Amino acid sequence: MNGADLIRQALDQLWLHRLRTALTLLGMIFGVGAVIAMLAVGEGGRREALTLIDGLGLRNLIVHDRPAEAEALRDLRTRSAGLSLRDLEAARESFPMVEAASALKEVRVWELFSEQGDSDARVFGVSPEHFDLAHLEIRAGRRFGDAEERAAAPVAVLGSEAARALFPNGGALHGRVKINHVWVEVIGILADRSLARNEFQGQRIGGEANHVYLPLATAQKRFAHPLLASEIDGFRLRVAADQPVAPLAEPLAELLARRHGGERDFEVVVPARLLAQQEQTQRIFTVVLASIAGISLLVGGIGIMNIMLASVLERRAEIGLLRALGARRKDIVRQFLTETAVVAALGALLGIVFGIALAYAIGAFAGWPVAWSPLTILLAVSVCVGIAVAFGVYPAREAARLDPVKALQSE
C-alpha cells in the first residue's frame, strides 16, 4: 500500500476504537498544549522585559536620591548635601568610559493647566540628553537643547496623555501651559509608548505619557524646592558599548559615598542586572513548565504504546493473513508506525488549539503577555510526533515478529 492508503487504514482503525483513541490523545494534547503555552508565555515575557528595560537603558547606570523622613533628613544634611550636579561631573571625570549623562529634578506641582484643561501630570526638569538616555521619542515638534538649558527657557515637552488632558481640543504644540506660577510654551509632544507594566524588578518605569519635561535649569531656577532637598533627584550615565556596565556600579557607589561623607543616601540601579535577574526567573519558570510538559508527553507516549500493543493482540489474525499473502516484516512495521504517527499528528493538532487557548488564559489570569514564534509550534509538534513514534516502535516490531501460522491460528 502507498502512504495515502496507510493513512486511510490508520484512520479507520482509530475510528473503530474511537473512545480508546480519544483517551490516548489526551496525554499528547496536554503535552503539546503545555509546550506551546510555555514557549508562548516565555517569549512574551522575554519581549516585554526587553521593552521595559529599554526605558531604563541597558547600558545605563541610574542613580536615585534615597528618600528619608523629615527628622532623619535634617540629621543627614549635617553630613551630606545629597545628590548634586557636582556628583554627576565627578562621575564623568572618574569614569572615562561614560559617554553621555543626564540629570533629573522633579518639580512639586500644585496647579497645572492650560486655557483648555488641567492635568495631574508630574513635572520634571531634565538635561537635554535625558530623551536619548531614556529612549523617549518626539511625535510632534522638537525637544529642548543646550541653549534653552543655559537660558533656563520657559519651554516644555509634554507626554501624550498630558497633552490630551491639557489640550482636549487639540493644538497642544506651541500652546501655553501654566505650572504653579510659571507659564511655559509647549515645543514638543512625546510619542506614546504603551507598556504592560509600570514596574520592573522593583523599579518604577514608564509613566512618561503623563509627564511634563522642562529644561533642568528652568526647574531649578524658576520653581521653589524644599529647603533640605537635594540639588537633583537623580542622574543617568550611559557606558560605551564596548565596556561592561555592571562592574562600574560599586566603584560609582564608593565615589558618591566618599563625596557624601560616607552616607549612602542614594541608590545605584543597573538595568543590565535587572534584566539578568528577569532572565534567571524566566529560566526557572521555563524549566518547571518544560518538566510538566515532558511528563505529559511521556504519559501520552505510554498511552500510545498501550493502544498499539492492544491493537497488535486484537489483529493477530489480520497480521498473519498479511504475512501469508506476502507482506514483509518492514511492511507490517510501516503500517503500525503510520497508525502511531497519525495518532501523534491528531494529538499535536488538537494540542495546538489547546495550547493557544491555555496561553491566552494564563496571560489573562496572570497579566502576562503572550508572543508567538513559528518555531514554537514546530518544536511542539516535532517533539510530540518524535516521542509518539519512539513509543510506537516496540509494538510495531512485536507485530512484525509474529509467526504467520500461529497468528492465523489465533482467530
SSE order, one letter for each helix or strand: HHEHHEEEHEHEHEEEEEHEHEHHHHH
Structural class: alpha+beta
Poorly predicted tracts of residues: none
Task: Profile the largest sheet.
Answer: 11 strands, mixed
Which key phrases capture this entry?
single chain, 411 residues, alpha+beta, 2 domains, two-stranded antiparallel ribbon, 14 helices, 13 strands, elongated
Structure, explained:
- With 411 residues, the chain is α+β, with helices and mostly antiparallel strands.
- The protein folds into two domains: 3-52 and 277-409, no CATH class; 59-270, no CATH class.
- It has helices at residues 3-16, 18-56, 70-76, 85-94, 130-133, 146-150, 160-166, 216-222, 249-259, 271-314, 316-324, 329-366, 374-400, 404-409, and strands spanning 60-65, 98-107, 112-113, 122-126, 138-141, 155-158, 176-179, 182-190, 199-200, 203-204, 211-215, 234-239, 266-269.
- The strands form two sheets. Strands 1, 2, 3, 4, 5, 6, 7, 8, 11, 12 and 13 form an eleven-stranded mixed β-sheet that branches. A two-stranded antiparallel ribbon has the order 9-10.
- The longest helix is centred in the last third of the chain and has 44 residues, at 271-314.
- The mean pLDDT is 82.
Topology:
Elements: H1 3-16, H2 18-56, E1 60-65, H3 70-76, H4 85-94, E2 98-107, E3 112-113, E4 122-126, H5 130-133, E5 138-141, H6 146-150, E6 155-158, H7 160-166, E7 176-179, E8 182-190, E9 199-200, E10 203-204, E11 211-215, H8 216-222, E12 234-239, H9 249-259, E13 266-269, H10 271-314, H11 316-324, H12 329-366, H13 374-400, H14 404-409
Parallel strand pairs: 4-11, 6-8
Antiparallel strand pairs: 1-12, 1-13, 2-4, 2-12, 3-7, 5-8, 6-11, 7-8, 9-10
